[in-house]
Amino acid sequence: MKVGIIGGTGGIGQGMALRLSQNHTVYIGSRKEEKAQAACEMCGYALKVLGLPFDLNPTTNQGVVDNSEIVVFSIPAENLERTIDSLTGLEGKIIVSLMNPMIRTDYFKYNPPEEGSAAIQLQKLLPDSKIVAAFNNIPAGKWQKLSEPLDYSVCVCSDHEDAKEKTMELVNSISELEAVNAGPLAVSPYIEAITPLVINIARFSKKRDVGVYFK
Ligand SMILES: NC(=O)c1ccc[n+]([C@@H]2O[C@H](COP(=O)([O-])OP(=O)(O)OC[C@H]3O[C@@H](n4cnc5c(N)ncnc54)[C@H](OP(=O)(O)O)[C@@H]3O)[C@@H](O)[C@H]2O)c1
């Protein structure tokens, strides 16, 4: 598949690129192409050292939209509207949101927009796109540890069955990830809210790479 990551230069974006680019064509997007170039070089070097194959391409965020079948939004949720305003051609695309709006006080707290979740907000802003919430609960650090398997469940929800199926296929193509069908996009607030929960558990229980696996 051709998968592009908007904000692909961040911790989660680069981690995803490291894993996905071994089996898929991946576009790392940025507001600045030279930043995407640097991220691609870094990821490419790490994969080359391990003798792993990869297909990684630097581009702008608009280049991600232009080239990808699946567009992943991997930016801080508060920058969503401004980022969408800067892009064209998102109609009809499968758009995966892994964004988890939250704030930090003495603990991490889910802080959704008035629409209910970042994914629902995205669907309202882009009514002609197929929004899917997925990959919300996997820590960036774990994506980046290529010597370790990614063995988590990935909750996937959407109001577009074809987009959900394609995204589940993508999830199941990565390491030991297991896609679970969580239903319609209305479920996305519960999925996004798992992330502050696991971060709080990691922090207060002094555990690393906390995630979820549903049996
Ligand atoms: N970190 C995790 O472990 C994790 C896990 C699951 C989900 N998530 C979610 O994934 C998303 C990205 O997380 P992250 O930790 O990778 O975040 P991040 O490093 O803070 O940001 C990711 C990228 O977003 C772009 N960005 C930053 N400010 C922006 C702005 N004002 N307008 C447009 N783009 C902007 C930057 O790319 P350019 O400067 O190159 O444009 C940046 O590299 C978040 O919504 C988070 O909730 C994170």
Automatic annotation (TrEMBL):
Listed GO MF terms: coenzyme F420 binding; cupric reductase (NADH) activity; ferric-chelate reductase (NADPH) activity; NADP binding; oxidoreductase activity, acting on NAD(P)H
For this protein, the record's SUPFAM superfamilies field holds: NAD(P)-binding Rossmann-fold domains
Is Oxidoreductase among the key words of this record?
A: yes
What Gene3D superfamilies does the record point to? NAD(P)-binding Rossmann-like Domain
Task: Identify the stretch annotated as signal peptide in this record.
Answer: none
Q: Which InterPro entries match?
A: NAD(P)-bd_dom_sf, NpdG, P5C_Rdtase_cat_N, STEAP_metalloreductase
One Pfam match, given by its short name, reads F420_oxidored
Q: What are the GO BP annotations of this UniProt entry?
A: copper ion import; NADPH regeneration
Cellular component (GO) terms are: plasma membrane
Q: Which UniProt keywords apply?
A: Oxidoreductase
Annotated Pyrroline-5-carboxylate reductase catalytic N-terminal domain ranges read 2-101
What is this protein's name? Answer: NADPH-dependent F420 reductase
Annotated source species: Methanofollis formosanus
Its lineage reads:
Archaea, Methanobacteriati, Methanobacteriota, Stenosarchaea group, Methanomicrobia
Chain's gene name: npdG
